[in-house]
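quick one before i forget lol
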Amino acid sequence: MSTTKLNRSLGLRLVVVIVIGNIIGSGVYKKVAPMTAELHSSGWVLICWILAGIISLFGALCNAEVAGLLADTGGEYVYYQKIYNKFFAFLFGWSLFAVIQTAAISALAYVFAESLNSVVHLPEVLSSWKDVSIGGVFYPFADLNVKLVAIILIIILTWINTKGIKTGAGFSMAILILVFASIFLIIAFGLTSHVAHISNIKMQTTNNTSVTFSAVFTAMLAAFWAYQGWASVGYVGGEIKDAKRNLPKGIVIGIFTIIALYLLVNTTYLSLLTIPQLEEVNSAGNKIAAIEAVRSFWGSNGVLFISVLIFVTTLGCCNATILSSCRTYFAMATEGLFFKKVAKLNDKQAPVNSLLYQCVWACILVLSGTFDQLTDMIIFAVFIYYGATTLGVFILRKKMPDAQRPYKVWGYPVVPAIVVIFCAVLVVNTVFSRPREAAIGAALMLTGVPMYFIFRKNKTVKI
């Protein structure tokens, strides 16, 4: 039997699991290398991790006020209808589908497959076609063995999530327990290893040049991928018990946990590897910083351990992203602003067709590009909407001054203002520092403009 109503079955514990599960993925293992290549200073790398964490926390606090006031399935899609209008809300939801969440699923699945390949050495597939390109930008057949594994993973996790939200959330919890235990093992053994040198962490650059404002923002673009995903829990707001209290609490607890973990593990990497070593990891393209760090004190056994940990972590994050993201398209479809079939639930009350559509597009995106292409594209797009949500704190304070707010953002109006300004600067800086990724991201988002009028004109589109 299929229905169109979701159950409120998630308590605070599972809310925190979904928040952390949507965040901790590939970035904690990979992004220290491109940040180092941008800054040439280990001290500045840690500063950028701290700054990115603070901005993410400020954004989370602002999001928590809005979520506490307007909590429902669909997250920002629902919030924007109250803050702005239905068109802007649709453009956000379409952006999630076109680039933000589907590309996140693709990037996570890609790193999972890369890590698996480092352990079992996947056989090459159509290697003679690897230089075939679309406009010299997309190389769909490059690393096709890795991409096919990523696609298979997306399909399997999509199937798991058709079994209901508690099944998907429980799967994420089991993986998170394993991931946290393993990462703290790396921190403990890494920092106490004879090859670890805290003195490696210096503010001075290796090329004796000054660190520029643009370099800091570009490095933070990488760090923000590692923090990306905390707002996704809002997409399942209609399935959270006492959502107006548990949603803000879960977001704040999850972000504080992640900031502490990231500082510890990146201090470990920077203590084990020098700046030139990390720059070499980045230039190699097919290496992962965490693997090289663990190799330095555990050898080949450590490489196997960290490779397994990375594909387990990305498995968990990919699952959490698949679980939460499809709820927005379901909410849109119930209002006639997405393909009609997406509004259907199966007998487990899972949005089965929304999961299917998301799966197909994410698999196509896997073929479209590399990991870093996908992540830079995502961060450019998502910070436009982070800024819009934070601006909504000011708008709702004026529109709904007497409404009950289970949580009010700390430091108002300074904290929301900092987040809005920062989002604007980061988006502008990305246009100049990563023009190709910004252009692709903007183009995919803007396809939502004609789609909005198509859906409005015919609310029974059956595709």
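fyi The two ends are 22 Å apart (CA to CA).
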